[in-house]
Amino acid sequence: MKFSAPLQQATLLKRYKRFLINAKLPNGSEVIAHCANPGSMMGLAKPGSEIWISPNTNPKAKLDWRWEMIRVEEHLVGINTSHTNKIAEEALNAEKISQLTGYDITRREVKYGENSRIDLLLQDSAKPDCYVEIKSVTLRRTDCAEFPDSVTKRGVKHLVEMTNMVAHGNRAVMLYIVQRGDCASFSIADDIDPAYAQSFAQATANGVEAICYDCNMSIDGIEISGQIPILR
Known about the structure:
single chain, six-stranded mixed sheet, 3 helices, globular
């Protein structure tokens, strides 16, 4: 995924009201940017950090800037969760995710379950439908990527819905995309959200698949790098 416009380097001043940040540009001016990340962003909102923001090209947007990346210990981390589906779909089209190849049709945001929408529905006449739920991962502790970084009732609901899809003869895959390249493995953060951890264990025990890929990060764009193991 290439950014549609060059990113602007800035310094993070503060994050507040969850979806807003104040940042200082190199010329000293201060701007407000949208933070498209509903999580706690543990370890990723330290004032004084070097960040990158992008110009908001949506004429209906209330803010001129969007927060895209932060540098943490010489590594770039993508914080914009709205990019995750595009990153994943580009990887699917390039056949970089071996577990999800061999499907003829890809549909987005298809209604399923109880008032839910699946991120991607993969279809082929020769095999069961494959429901793919995509999660953006940014939290890192030691050298392990972890999800979630805050309590997510919505995430628990998705796991229940995916389990139901398997029970009805479909394939269901949780695809965790780590928007950073400095993690050797992935695990569920059971200390942050025990309910999600329990639901994940139940879902995978009942046929829901889970796979995790990290990313190559640059100020020009983000792309899938390779699979990393999931610690159980």
